[in-house]
Amino acid sequence: MATNVPMVATVSPNAGGKAGLLEFEAIVRKLSNAGLSLSVTPEVDAALNAYDEISVSLRLPGQSRLYTLACLVRHRSPLDDMVIYGCEYDWTATMDPLGVVEDLLEYVLDEPRG
Fold first, then answer.
1. What CATH number does domain 3-108 carry, 3.30.460.80, 2.40.10.220, 3.10.620.30, 3.80.30.20?
2. Residue-wise pLDDT tens digits, 42-72
3. Are 42 and 60 a contacting pair, CB within 8 Å?
4. How far apart (Å, rounded) are the C-alpha atoms in residues 16 and 61?
5. How far apart are CA 113 and CA 78, in angstroms?
6. Angle at alpha carbon of residue 97, lines to 92 and 102, rounded to 5°
7. What residues pair up with 84 in beta bridges, in sequence order?
């Protein structure tokens, strides 16, 4: 089940070299056990548009741990003055995937529905 959460994330290309050092701010629009939706500015989209694999770092509300998730960008859609990214988690490229998925699933299942 997806949740609506006002959460800020840091996004970077999941790539080697200088590209992997780039970091951009994004807003988490929706979060689920399978993927997430991000809102980025057109400038961020221009920088990330060449990358279908990204890393998303975020803190779940009420948690102190920083989670870094490898994601596959499945679609990019303009909406008003932003660009919406639909991303699927890439568990094979995520560090400590079992710990992340356990905490993420607990958060998604416990999040109140509006």
1. 2.40.10.220
2. 999 999 999 999 999 999 988 899 999 999 9
3. no
4. 30
5. 26
6. 140
7. 39, 77
